[in-house]
Amino acid sequence: MGIQWRDSLAIGVPEIDNQHKELLHRFDRLLTASQAGQGIEELKNLQVYLEDYVTSHFSDEEGIQRQHSYPGYEAHKSEHRYFIEQITKLRLETEKSGVATHNVIETNNLLLKWLLNHISKVDTQLGAFIKSKTA
Fold it and tell me: Which positions ≥6 away from 91 have C-beta within 8 Å?
């Protein structure tokens, strides 16, 4: 039960699409490791990656939105802040209590919801807006 990139997730901005592909690849690694009973170790790797990812990816994405005067910028940025808060909360919990199976499950759920709701809907709207301005 892995997860893989589908072209339907592409928003048409190569820089952002490539970053999304890498996020899905990392998420797939967590899912695969979880199935093999090694999710706790992979979660540690993913948390380090996500800390860097949210900083650079969200900065890039928000910069593109400002560049194109995207009208949904504030709402989009708010969703980014929420995701950062959730990732930080999970990381702090694992630092405090150690990594446990429930942390792996919570991270899987968070990433799946993010994929389904943010990338496939909110980012797709951004992509459509940018395409409409450059067409």
Answer: 47, 50, 51
